[in-house]
Fold this protein.
Amino acid sequence: MKNYSFTKGIEKLIDPLEVGSIHFLAPYNKLLPEKIQHKIIESSGKKTPYMGFVVEPYCYFLCYEILDLEWAQRLIPDNFNLIRTQIFENDEPKYYGLFGCFNVHTSAFWGQRMEFYIIAENIDTGLLTWIIVDYDTNTISYDKKGGLFESNCDSAVITTDFAGNVIVDVLNINKNRTLTFTSNIESALMQPLHQRLWIEGNLSIGYGREISHNSPDVFSLIFDPREVERALQCNIDDLTIEMNSWFPGLLADKPSQLACFPYAQHFLADSPGHSSSLLTKNDLEQAYIKTDFTTIPAYSTKSMKKNFVLGAAIPWILLVIAIILYINK
């Protein structure tokens, strides 16, 4: 069972009761000023620098060629430049925008996420980088713009059926956008992925200009590189897109490539406020080999619970003080 120690270690870092506590406390922490929220989350990252992050089977990527390069450049922070890349080893390099659709359970949240990425190059490190421009999710999330918040979409369906279909329907009325499609993957074949994108890119993940406040910060994932050696290359003819209203005019009408991972992927992710600063595949391999789960503390809600209790107590304390002052008046 030694060969499965990393996979089991990641799963053991994820405590459903702790995740449930975070989901319960998130709305109350939202009452705190944004600066205090950031301080709490990032201080927690120093105590628990890593989170277990499991992407469930059938994580699916729609990979579109970017048509409006100037617009795309404005969507990413100043510290990054657009770069051509391949999705699979056998395809043509292009400027890509990708939609990643997946079910996930982590040390901090559990649910469905649909993220839109632009692939860029980090000016400081030269690393190919996945920039999360924006995302819709039916679970809690955290970023520098919104702080810690609950679901930001009206509905999120990311699932499969008995007939080999991936079914996605994610609606965000507030931002007037939806992504709805089905893709039959029964005829898809496993093909080698372009390793710079899938290895290097997972060592350097950042956020878009708006939600990061134009920050150059990135985080890394630690994982077995074999997780991203291959994926299902799905047939464009087996894809039916009912609606994609994200960034009209930015992307080509149809995706160039479709990729699907038919197995769970297990990552050790940097917590907010911590960066592993991995730069090469060798750095990744060494970090993976040296990971000792006996020394990695599980993500905890203790600081959030303290703030919840404090926030609940303050109005009562102020009321008692007011009553005392009134009596002694």
About this structure: Residues 2-301 form one domain. The radius of gyration is 21 Å. Residues 302-327 form the longest helix (26 residues). Residues 61 and 301 are 32 Å apart (CA to CA).
